[in-house]
Amino acid sequence: MNTDQLPGARTAPDKSQKVATTNGSNRGKPDYKTDILVVDDREDKLLALEAILASLGQNIVKARSGKEALRLLLKQDFAVILLDVSMPGMDGFETASLIRKRLNSEHTPIIFVTAIGGSENHIARGYSLGAVDYILAPILPDVLRAKVSVFVELHRKTELIRSQAECLRQDVAARKAAEEQVCLLNVELEQRITALTEVNRELEAFNYSIAHDFRGPLRSMSGFSSALIEEEGDKLSSLGLDYARRINRSAKYMDNLLLDMLAYSRLVKSEMPPVPVLLEDPINELLGILESDIRERGVHLELASPLGMVYAHPPTLKQIVSNLIGNSLKFTAPDRPPKVRIFTTRRQAFLRLWIEDNGIGIDPQYHEKVFGLFQRLHDSQKYPGTGIGLALVRKGAERMGGASGLESRLGEGSRFWVDLPIAEDAQNGQ
Amino acid sequence: MDNKILYVEDNPDDAILTALAFRKAGIKTSLELASDGEQAIAALQRNHATAPPCCVLLDVKLPTMSGLEVLAWIRSQPALKRLPVVMLTSSILPGDINRAYDLGANSYLVKPSDLDSLVALAKSIDEYWLRINVNAGAAQVA
User: Fold this and answer.
1) Where are the domains of chain A?
2) Which CATH code for domain B4-141?
3) Which residue of A has its CA nearest to B13?
4) What is the percent of chain B where pLDDT is above 70?
5) Looking at the complex, does the CB of residue A247 fall below 8 Å from at least one CB of chain B?
6) Nearest CA in chain A to B11
7) In whole angstroms, what is the distance from residue B48 CA to residue B36 CA?
8) How far apart, in whole angstroms, are the C-alpha atoms of residue B8 and residue B58?
9) What is the pTM of this model?
10) Is the link from the previous residue into A306 a cis peptide, with omega within 30 of 0?
11) Got the DSSP string for B68-122?
């Protein structure tokens, strides 16, 4: 009666232990072994069934009684159960009906194995208890294997589907987590934008303060030193007059510096919607303003028309062109008549505007430095300037979707260039 | 009509320099100085029936009452609707410029930082707001 106390029964719990620890992720894999429960009170029949099923390559779990089978079913599920009908104590039918009453084994396929056979009633009772098949002794090994392998395959596929469903569930969970992460980052980003907007507003107020409050005292210094020179100059010694002129010059220089800084900060923050611009327009306008300066300095100027049309923000383009042409007129070499050539070349979707001079040139090691803010290579006595002009060129070009640079060697003149998006469509439309 | 300009300016340095620039520009019209908005309004209320100014030069940034508020008050007075008001200020904020014109300013001039430019500016004020406009006003009155 106490069949589960038999020494042979000890193998079963061990096996179930092993199955229980099997990683869920292995269950769907093709080499995953399913468990087959074989229930018979007779050791010889158990051995015979085990031998027949061995070639299927699955785990065979043996139980010597209905009770033991039920206990094993508590711990794990099986691909199929081979159940002997006639066992002492709890017989196969009783065992089957109890198996069916349990939730986790209510669908486990049961194949009855019996030598009784023959009786139609017997078979009918088996089916009514949920048997999926009936095998009569003497057992034909091929038939048994074929029947069992169907359920093994079915179980495998079910497990595969289950594991895929699990994977999907995890995927969905992971995606949900990722989405939450994205939401969190968005909130963080918005907070940073708000903080940056606040900083920008403060900077704007600061710029306003520079424009208004700093320029006020400068206006006084410049204005009163001018008044001193012009109104009271005859009462001043030549040294006193020189001092007054120095004050005046410094105040004007500082005012230019402030104006350039303001122009730079406007360039950094303001919107600049690009429109098609004929490059000749701002350049001719500027050359008109500089006409007397060009004539006085004896500059030979060459404008290679047509220059072409680009997408640009007109005020910014004017500023860039003004700074570059201004530089070419300023950094002239003392030993040769100054020459300035303005022309364009095409580079894919960009038009490159060149401003070439035969001036003092720039050592290649300073080519990047000159585009930095407040970078000056010369003392202000020789070549006056605020050190912002080329920074304005670079930032302005960038803000209009272009770029800027230069080719130059010390003593051999400079060629500054600005790339701007070509406005070909607009040109064709003209 | 009295030949007098009401000049509203809180910065004494700017007031002296502007007066100097007007003198250098050869403008004979006298400048009456008000150093804040209340003084400006008081001067206009006191004089506008008998001797209104021919023009107002108005700074934007003033203590307590801003130049734009003074401008709004001027335009709310039926008798002062046509009085030429020229903003003379260091504010280059687009917001200030647009608001000034919205409120009825006739011109918006940015204070130059050197005396020569200030003299040139005084001349242009004289040519347009003190002569042409006054003549036009006189023609209108006639």
Assistant:
1) 3-139, 191-269, 275-429
2) 3.40.50.2300
3) A220
4) 89
5) no
6) A216
7) 18
8) 5
9) 0.53
10) yes
11) HHHHHHHHHSGGGTT--EEEEES---HHHHHHHHHTT-SEEEEPPSSHHHHHHHH
